[in-house]
Amino acid sequence: MAGTATSTRLNAIVPPVALAVLVVSLVTHPTGPVLVLPALALGAAVLSAVHHAEVVAHRVGEPFGSLVLAVAVTIIEVGLIVTLMVSGGDDSTTLARDTVFAAVMITTNGILGLSLLLTAMRHHTAIFNPEGTGAALATVGTLAALCLVFPTFTTTRSGPQYSGAQLAFAAIASLVLYGLFVVTQTVRHRDFFLPVDDDGRPRQEEHADPPSTRETLISLGLLLVSLVTVVGLAKVESPAIESGVRELGFPQAFVGVVIALLVLAPETIAAANAARRDRVQISLNLALGSAMASIGLTIPSLAVATIWLDTPLHLGLGATQIVLLVLSVVVATLTVVPGRATRLQGGVHLVLLAAFLFLSIQP
Fold first, then answer.
1. Are 83 and 72 contacting, i.e. CB atoms less than 8 angstroms apart?
2. CATH of the domain spanning 67-210+249-361
3. DSSP code string of 21-71
4. Which end of the chain is less congested by CB atoms within 10 angstroms, N or C?
5. Which part of the chain is the Sodium/calcium exchanger membrane region domain (predicted)?
């Protein structure tokens, strides 16, 4: 009990302290070894965000809880992409594509594979609901093709980009699909997204008493502060990241990968925690819900932002990226259809993530 109370107090202190570090960093523009402090604050804010997201999720219940972190992180992701696009010049034309595609690969292969592997290592087989998980995967695949693949092949405008009308259609279609999925997950077919027993029926679980309304509202506010701080500190660290990428000889597109890794860190930790508690369905909800929100909310927001952004929005993927995306969707489909998975499936997805990261460094 004492350890829990200490942890609670620390998680209440970390967000305002990290926010103070962010404010000081924005004013002083630290360089060199001093950047270690914002980096430490960034890591602490990520862990705090996970804690407060779990508190809110416990209060609102599933599957609503899985939406909290996914939507919040994605909204902040949009702000980070737009900010870097405004200040990045010509090098930022593909930043949105690189970041969103990295988010899709990290969620559908990294978070999903890690969750399956952790659960299967403890229980030999990870059991989940194929109806809800399959519906989420189908939506992710459709959104990815609509927003990241088609722009490569359209001919109205030269280059891997949509025309204004095409971008507007993709944005509206993305919002419609995302809205339909949220209604399905939270209203019409909630049981498709709840943890299941070995026989496939929704699990009746005993839970600790949910936090009070006051505690939930405090955690919600601290969650938002943590997420804003995570993205703000990531922006503070971004010059060091960009210079580090250049010094290592990596392609500029790898900056988008690093941004996605930072932004998705809270969801990765939350999904891993759920998998360790044998609630792999919640982990899959987080993984695919995050991928869906990353496309379905980010692309429409960027479509609106192009009204005042001078930087072209190159969304179309290259040939290697398209092959990776198609392979990931096919493998994920084969993983999801049976409703159960072993360590093998988790390992396959993690190898696909490793291939994506390696090919991002050595295209």
1. no
2. 1.20.1420.30
3. HHHHHHHH---GGGGHHHHHHHHHHHHHHHHHHHHHHHHH-TTHHHHHHHH
4. N
5. 38-186, 219-361
283's tokens: 């982990």
Torsion sign, CA atoms 159, 160, 165, 167? negative
Beta-strand ranges (E) seen in the chain are 126-127, 340-341
Amino acid of residue 279: R
Is the model's pLDDT at 311 over the cut of 90? no
pLDDT bin (cut points 50, 70, 90) of residue 2 is very low
- Would strands 340-341 and 126-127 be described as parallel, antiparallel, or unpaired? antiparallel
Q: Is the pLDDT of residue 202 over 80?
A: no
Sign (positive or negative) of CA dihedral 181, 147, 291, 284: positive
Helix axes 343-361, 319-336, angle to 10 degrees: 170
* β-bridge mates for residue 127, sequence order: 340
Cβ partners under 8 Å of residue 127, min gap 6: 196, 197, 198, 200, 280, 339, 340
Q: Domains of the chain: which residue ranges?
A: 67-210+249-361
Q: For the chain, what is the mean pLDDT?
A: 83
Sequence length of the chain is 363
For residue 202, the cross-strand partners are: 196
pLDDT, tens digit, for every residue of 238-293? 777 777 777 888 888 888 888 888 778 878 888 898 888 888 988 998 899 888 88
Give every CB contact of residue 359 below 8 A, 6+ residues apart in sequence. 320, 324
- Whether the pLDDT of residue 4 is over 60: the answer is no
> Would you list the DSSP string of 78-109?
HHHHHHHHHHHGGGGTTHHHHHHHHHHHIIII
Q: Phi and psi for 362 in degrees, rounded to 5?
A: -120, 75
